[in-house]
Design a protein that fits this description.
TIM Barrel, Immunoglobulin-like, 351 residues, single chain, globular, 30% helix
Amino acid sequence: MKRLFSYLLLLLTTTAYSADSAVFLQYHHVSEHTPRSTSVTPDQLQQHLDYLDDNGFSVKSIVDVVDSIRDGKPLPDKTIVITFDDAFKDIYENAFPLLKEKGYPFTIFVAIGPVDKNYHQYLSWEQLREMGQRGATIANHSITHSHMVVKHPGETQQQWVNRNRDEIQKTEARIKQQTGQSVKLFAWPFGEANPELRQLLVSMGYVGFGQQSGVVGSLSDFTLLPRYPMAADYAEMRGFRTKVNSLPLPIAKQRPDSAMVRDDNLKPSLTLELAEGDFQKNQLKCYASNAGEVPVKWLDDKKTRFSTVTPNNLPVGRSRYNCTAPSMDGRHYYWYSHQWLRLNKDGTAID
């Protein structure tokens, strides 16, 4: 009943979105010597943190923010969550000192295989424990960081589900053994998930995180929460300022509810139904990662439902449709992103 009341209140107000939403940032490497496509430099991270500090943002614990949004509890305006994926050593060397100086909590989603094998490029359990004692949340990113949507040769559906369940459970147990933490937050490797895996996560009591851009709000899918990837050109300050000041485009329904691209439909249409919000519907625009701006087709007179589609076949790998609309005062963007995943002909995925 409490959640129903919170949902109804959300629909009846135009200010609730800013009070129960948060921007989640996703980093990988923090280094000048790692691949640019997955890296920010230490100077860039310093600029990001200084901007948050100088402009009244509240950097909060991931557990507190997720719990608050799910339970309908208010958050400070301009709430930010900082996350890192994969557990690279440069997080400890280059990011941890900056975060510690600011007193900012952060999260590391750990793929435990390279950590257990003491790979040179990865954090050690000792370093993870130290950061955990200084405000870091240590969370689940699988053992192998494999493409979880892909079945092994000869594997049945149930064997595939059981294998993924086992990997998540073993990772969580290892993190708890080494750090004492078990928060049941899971970041999908490569941001890839399908409906069956998302349902598995629900049955296990986990919250899931993707790699599609957007803002987490009360209408978000808690099996695949959005995060803004921070790397390469996406980490430049102009874009950073826009993203950390953005709000969740309130999506009441979407079709399809899957990332998977079928071979007989390589130009998939996305249909979205909007809840009420303080945004300019006439200025809503959508973009496909393989085509730039794409048409928005309104499906009703009140402009509550629309569809969008790319004119080009989606390539093998991951693609996105992003839809944004400016707020009524023009100071913020409302943002939503849907990730697509097209597999190779043999059912494998690409990194």
